[in-house]
Design brief:
The chain is an all-alpha fold. Helices cover about 85% and strands about 0% of the residues. It contains seven helices and no strands. Helix 6 runs antiparallel to helix 7. The longest helix is centred in the middle third of the chain and has 74 residues. The radius of gyration is 61 Å and the shape is rod-shaped. It starts with a helix and ends with a helix. About 15% of the residues have low confidence.
Length: about 300
């Protein structure tokens, strides 16, 4: 197989495959039925034309027969008047007309035969068309039923192209939803841990922890009050208060002793620039921080 013949074969096969995919059996059957009806109409038109031609010949034959009768009367009249010459001419014309009539009769008979044949073919074709119409409707019903069954099966199994696209869309939506849920949970976790500061608030994480401690203390105090009103936990509350006061006194003594031991000359004062900010290095005495912390505790108590 040469290159050109092979290429032609491939092109024809591709076109045939495209046509097979694009072909609708219902439309094909309807088109075939219309083609048969057109053929039947052509046969009927041919029969009508043939019959018209036959009728013309028959009209011409009747005229010739009238002329034959006329020439016959002319010959009789010429004989009665002893005009044999005129009688001969009339008989000659009569003979010519009779010959023409014989030719027309043969043509008419031939046209009649063709007409009978066409009528028979028309009847057969009409019967085939009626049979094909019945078969066509049956085939269309079967095809539509099979098509509907296939669509239902594809819908149940999800094997169709459209349902495949729907399945992919659902998978993408599920993945997107899971990503959004994970991101939302991550944002909540970071917000609770304080990793993200509120842009509308000037509080930092220390302020939020102090507020939480204050809230917890208020809740504990209210809980102790409820217990006292209900007569529960009184002994425990008094013992806890005594322990707290004792530990507070000892801490206060230790803080005073430590602050007394601090020498003012040992505290380094950081350099302050014109803007009131410290220098590059600032040393903080831990004892001062502890003393200030103890003072805050005493004030709170």
């Amino acid at each position: 197989m040469g290159i050109l013949s092979r290429a032609s074969y491939v092109v024809r096969s591709k076109i045939n495959a495209i046509l097979n995919r694009a072909e609708d059996p219902s439309e094909t059957l309807d088109y075939s039925y219309e083609q048969l009806r057109d053929q039947l109409q052509d046969v009927k038109q041919g029969i009508a034309d043939l019959t018209t031609q036959k009728k013309r010949l028959e009209i011409q034959k009747r005229r010739l027969e009238e002329n034959v009768e006329k020439h016959n009367e002319q010959a009789r009249e010429a004989v009665r008047q002893d005009r044999d010459d005129l009688a001969r001419k009339a008989l000659e014309k009569k003979k010519q007309k009779m010959n023409q009539i014989e030719g027309l009769e043969s043509q008419i008979a031939e046209l009649q035969g063709q007409q009978d044949k066409l009528v028979e073919q028309k009847n057969k074709l009409q019967s085939r068309i009626e049979e094909f119409r019945t078969k066509k409707e049956t085939m269309k019903a079967r095809y539509e039923a099979a098509e509907a069954s296939t669509k239902v099966s594809e819908a149940m199994t999800g094997a169709g192209d459209e349902f495949e696209d729907v399945g992919r869309a659902i998978e993408r939506a599920e993945e997107r939803t899971e990503d959004m849920e994970a991101r939302s949970q991550a944002m909540d976790e970071l917000q609770e841990s304080g990793a993200f500061d509120d842009a509308l608030s000037d509080k930092d994480s220390i302020d939020r922890e102090l507020e939480q401690l204050s809230t917890d203390s208020s809740v504990d105090a209210e809980l102790n009050t409820l217990k006292g009103e209900m007569g529960k936990g009184t002994t425990e509350t008094e013992s806890e208060s005594a322990d707290a006061s004792g530990s507070g006194g000892s801490d206060r003594d230790e803080a005073e002793t430590e602050s007394a031991d601090v020498d003012a000359a040992d505290v380094e004062t950081p350099d302050v620039d014109a803007n009131g900010e410290g220098g590059d290095e600032v040393s903080v005495d831990e004892s001062e921080v502890e003393a200030e912390l103890e003072e805050l505790k005493e004030d709170e108590q």
